[in-house]
Amino acid sequence: MQAPDFLRGEVRVTGHRQGDDLLSAGLGQSGLGAEPSSIAHPLRPTPAELRRRAIQSSWQGIADLGPLGGYGRVYGAVPDVPGREYQAFAWIPGAQSPHRVLVQVPDHFGPAHRCLVVTASSGSRGIYGAIALAGAWGLPRGCAVAYTDKGAGSGYFDPADDTGVALDGTRARRGSATLEFEPPRASAQGGIGIKHLHSGDNPEADWGRHVLQAAQFGLAMLDRAFPELAPFTAQNTRIIATGLSNGGGAVLQAAGLDDGHLLAGVVALEPNVLVPGQGRALFDYATEASIWLPCALADARFDSTPMARTPQGEVPPSWVQRCHQLHERGLLSAAHLAGQAAEAHERLRASGWTDEVMATAASTTALDLWRAITAGYASAYMRRGPDEMPCGFRYGGSGAIDPVIRASWWTDASGIPPGQGVGLSGGMDHSADASLPGALCLRTLWEDKDASTQALRDGVAATTVKQPRASLPLWVVHGADDGLLPASFTSEPYVAWLRAGGGRPLYWKVPGAQHFDAFLAIPGFGDRHVPLLPYGYAALDRLWAHLYEGAPWPVRVPTPAPRSRGTGTLTREALDLPATWTPGPV
């Protein structure tokens, strides 16, 4: 059967059975939560080894698989799901780089309830970046699952040896294979090329198109998998879109572009979504947080906040320096730390940050994620290459990249450095607060009205969503304590905008939930917060019942209790979860 015209090159088809399934690559839940799966020859990993490790890394980045997390006991499951995978490179018209698309077709695909789940990776992760949400929910039900990396992913390009990542995940030299990302030629001393950040495409502006192409690819691959049941269309196959974080924003973008009525329903978790003229753009509040949160978190009200103090109970010295440097630059008036921290705290409160959100954002601040996000996204929005990033930033190693680490970038990297041997340099000085100049420079890109910085604001504006059709069943689930993508800047303006336009979206603002379920294993974190993933599964359950059984939309928002209020381990009652389905074929 003819492949969609947006594909270039081969469609790679692989079977996964007998110890190598679709959902866990044969690792099962215990293996998914263990140390990275082994590679026999680390310099020459096989496609099967890379796939297994990529799936494991994606699970660990999204789900709380630890002994206190309750996964597989309170919610979720990792059954053995045999089947086939279809993978290819797809192209948006005018794009310089492709996005990956992959379809998992379980052997027990349910022809009586034709179902295709379409999803986009969270963050900037690789192609399996939503498997813990879309795959874990859809595959046991007998649904096929279509993924896109939405123009991001971990197919890093290293100019030192002129290699990138081929379709099967192995590294290949420029010109020897079609690569996931291939920047213009640079010197061997050029910066590491990251597709999301350096493709010149501003992928975020096309996330919705990536998702719709993945849905079309899914239908086409179902035609190949089951020719006796073809054609598969949106009229005879229900397509459910779901995603988390950036993936959640991607499915909401797709909903607004779905003029052909491909989508039957949408569930978006903690979406990075920007409404025209409402809410706040990620680059806006992230650059603000990068400057002010280190000082604000020095306030005494955060003394018991996880990751806001050193093991000795002190404010981190770099945060003390941030307050001092802001005072030295005339941005804070108080002469002493307590007053400076109080000023920074009030500044953030005035711009929409709550104490609960700031407390959770201590983790993002302590891990220096604001700098990683803002430096990278500035390059993406301004369509800059690896060696022309704004504010002097650059990605590279302290020396030559370890070839063993480079061989597994596709499996282990998150899609935005630093990490896996790739550092973020530039935007620094030699002061006691070396990262402040870069943070202020990035903030200036947003606040300036100079023509030289207009490209950034134009790039952000291109990411705004459009309203979906009012009849589309749509559900937004967001953690009330999300410190990375605060609901008041993202989901709440979006839901209000839809309702004002005649839509009837459901909105669950889950008390105690925050952005990173994987952080719940951090000491103190799981005692304060609950996982968000089970509420995504519950929303998808209800959407299924609505689409296939005509069940009414629920309205009650769960009111969970974190572990510290109970026995130390999660229970279904503590999560206040509604009745659930039993995983298995339909």
UniProtKB/TrEMBL annotation:
Family annotation (Gene3D superfamilies): alpha/beta hydrolase (3.40.50.1820)
UniProt entry tagged with the keyword Hydrolase: yes
Keyword flag Nuclease: no
Alphabetic keyword roster: Hydrolase
Pfam families for this protein: 3HBOH
Entry's Gene Ontology BP terms: butyrate metabolic process
SUPFAM superfamilies: alpha/beta-Hydrolases
InterPro entries: AB_hydrolase_fold, OHBut_olig_hydro_put
Name of protein: Hydrogenase
